[in-house]
Design brief:
alpha/beta, 5 strands
């Protein structure tokens, strides 16, 4: 079984997120999603989420491409998760290109192109204009 992992906040879930999850799942048989906790988002990413961790987790678990959602509590967790979940391929959006190359010692690393016309930042910006 080929196992894939990706990470994100997945707040204000949109079709760009779905595209990423679909493409990630197409690379293997089992997709693990590391979902940033509220504490990690606030302390390390300086982000406040609209939806709570539990709400975002519930949304992700409802998506057919996602097999398992785990909490992401820190940047360094990725190294441990690759081993713990027997990951073959790490996938993330290409806005992170090069940032996770250190994982190449343990698994394949792919940076997938983002869906260009949509992002959570863009949604928040558009909402603030109104």
């Amino acid at each position: 079984m080929k196992r894939i992992i990706t990470y994100g906040t997945f707040d204000l879930l949109h079709y760009g997120h779905i595209n990423l999850l679909k493409r990630a799942k197409e690379l293997g048989d089992y997709l693990v999603v590391g979902l940033s906790t509220d504490e990690f988002n606030l302390k390390e990413k300086n982000k406040k989420c609209y939806f709570s961790y539990e709400q975002r987790k519930h949304l992700l678990e409802a998506i057919r491409y996602v097999d398992l959602v785990i909490p992401e509590e820190g940047w360094n967790q990725k190294l441990t998760d690759v081993d713990l979940y027997h990951i073959d391929t790490f996938v993330i959006g290409d806005d992170w290109k090069g940032k996770f190359d250190f994982l190449k010692e343990k698994c394949n690393v792919l940076y997938l192109p983002r869906t260009p016309e949509i992002s959570t930042s863009q949604i928040k910006s558009d909402l603030n204009k109104n």
